[in-house]
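User: I'm putting together a teaching handout on how sequence relates to shape, and I'd like one worked example. Could you take Sugar ABC transporter permease from Candidatus Allofournierella merdipullorum, show the sequence you're using, and then write out its predicted structure as tokens right after it?

Assistant: Happy to. First the sequence, then the structure tokens directly below it.
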Amino acid sequence: MQTVKNGVATGPKKSFSLLKTRRQKDAAFSLLLLTPAIICCVIFILFPIIDSVKMSFTTYKIANLTQNIPGEWNNFANYTRLWSSGKLQDSIQVTLLFVFVTVALSFVIGMALALMLNSNIRGARFLRSVMMIPWVIPTVISGLLWAWIYANPYGLLQYVISVVTDGRVTGFGILNNQETAIWGVIIVALWKQIPLITLLLLAGMQNVPEDILEAAKLDGANYLQCLFKIIFPFMRSVIAVTVSLSIIDNFKQYPLFATLTNGGPASATTTLAVLSYDEAFVNYNYGSGAAVTTVWLLLMVVVVFVFNAIFRKKDD
């Protein structure tokens, strides 16, 4: 009920008005704080994306760049040429294979390691510190390191195989074979990414309420029931963010392919990232490279959107 005191209205209406004004001020202050980040995103992310999409519909080569000549509009010529050559389909297939296998295996292995480190094992803190070393090492250095391990015939892998087989197996080059090259890169990606995924999942796992777990155990729930009925549901948001970040990270993976295979042998490891680089900076066809980048971006957005949609649907 509203009352009047000294000519000023008081009561619920005044309180609501003050609350509304405070919320507006908080929203305006939040927008002010976010303004620099929004400006940076627009200038350094949104504008380049729009310019790249526009360039993908033009004939834009090195002469256009050096002489500052606008590209000639060619509609979908870049896309049709890439599709008719088969390069685009092959690179999409390799990219999806690499992303899905790497994300799935890194999540499974990372979850297993997180469960192990979350238990009361000796040296858990030391293991958490040591296991982060692969993630800390720069990606290019990691690629060079594993290139030496995979080197044929004097690499560490070849030496171990020759010792185990008593010299009967020689000349095994995992990166030189079209059937095994992509799996060699996947192994390196797993070695590089599992530590971070394990750390993120472990952080989410440690936020699971202990009292609920204890109550479930007292009610007779076994380890698997606690895992799937309590731990995983409480970690849904962490799992969604971790997997989404892993999908994005693997979609834009280029340094490992550049240092290990450079898209070979015979385009067996040519992902969309590698194809985009080759078209733009090897063939000097920037319009074609922009076309690959556009397909690459759209495919990544679709995969992340579908994953999140499925994840939310299961949650509902």
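A couple of points you could highlight for students: The first strand starts at residue 3 and ends at 5. The radius of gyration is 27 Å.
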